[in-house]
Specification:
about 280 residues; alpha/beta; Rossmann fold; N-(1-d-carboxylethyl)-l-norvaline Dehydrogenase, domain 2; 2 domains; 8-stranded mixed beta sheet; 11 helices; about 50% helix
């Protein structure tokens, strides 16, 4: 079992990752930029655990014990004794590189550095460090406490030992790790984002209403939610960032983001997190 973990970034993905590790007995350092961000993250975890208590999937005492294992801090130095650090900051290479440079300087040489990136090259991130063999992608799915998949991405120099550690660690969390190689978007988003993008083109071109597009995909393809609803759930800004990574990394126009998506992101209509996307919340 992984006993000492740090999670960098307390947003939707980061707080979910911290919660799952703490639920399985790990001591977690949750690192973010300021106390307000940490308070929001711990509030989100508290709310998530509260829902599990309400559904009788854990007791109130168990939820309290999980929270006690998560320590929020703004100090990167808190990662010094960790076995594993999972980065979950915004999907921009320059931000991730800066985080990995800091982690490489602070953490012990045996510490494995993982990125929750959904599309950015693990090889590029690893090249920022002096331990490329111990850098790996650990792409959790949202919502982290519920979704079983962890997409494990090996960079060019990721060692077998590192991959084995992360696969076994994921299994210990009750997840199902599936290994992919380091190409833009890996498997999950290389397949998913073009579908979402095409649904947005259908909406822009008036092929059907938002409800009709989602219902056709739900009823005809057995998807649990339609692509426009899913885009709102992911965040339209995140969808745009991933499509741009795919377009740049693969160089194929089929990954060109729909102009309607760009316009909505520019307007600040990002989906559930802002209360308005393709739907209103």
């Amino acid at each position: 079992m992984i006993e000492r973990v740090a999670v960098i970034g307390g947003g939707t993905m980061g707080n979910g990752i911290a919660q799952v590790f703490a639920m399985h007995g790990a001591s977690v350092q949750l690192v973010d930029v300021d106390d307000a961000a940490i308070a929001r993250a711990k509030g989100a975890i508290d709310g998530s655990l509260g829902r599990l208590v309400k559904k009788e999937k854990m007791t109130a005492d168990e939820a309290s014990a999980v929270l006690s294992r998560i320590d929020g801090t703004t100090d990167f130095g808190a990662t010094a004794d960790r076995q594993l650090v999972v980065e979950a900051v915004p999907e921009r290479l320059e931000i991730k590189k800066a985080v990995f440079e800091k982690l490489d300087a602070i953490t012990g040489q045996d510490c494995i550095l993982a990125s929750n990136t959904s599309s950015i090259s693990i090889t590029k991130i690893a090249a920022t460090t002096k331990r490329a063999d111990r850098v790996i992608g650990m792409h959790f799915m949202n919502p982290v406490p519920i979704m079983k998949l962890v997409e494990v991405i090996r960079g060019n120099d990721t060692s077998d030992a590192t991959a084995d550690f992360v696969v076994k660690g994921s299994e210990a969390l009750g997840k199902i790790p599936v290994v992919a190689q380091d190409y833009p978007g890996f498997v999950s988003n290389r397949v998913l984002m073009p579908m979402i993008n095409e649904a947005i083109f259908c909406l822009m071109e008036g092929v059907a209403t938002r409800e009709a597009i989602d219902e056709i995909m739900k009823l005809g393809m057995a998807h649990p939610m339609g692509p426009l609803t899913l885009a709102d759930f992911i965040g339209l800004d995140v969808c745009l960032e991933i499509l741009d990574v795919l377009k740049t990394g693969i160089g194929d126009d089929k990954y060109r983001a729909c102009p309607l998506l760009r316009r909505m992101v520019a307007a600040g209509h990002l989906g559930r997190k802002t209360g308005r996307g393709f739907y209103e919340y």
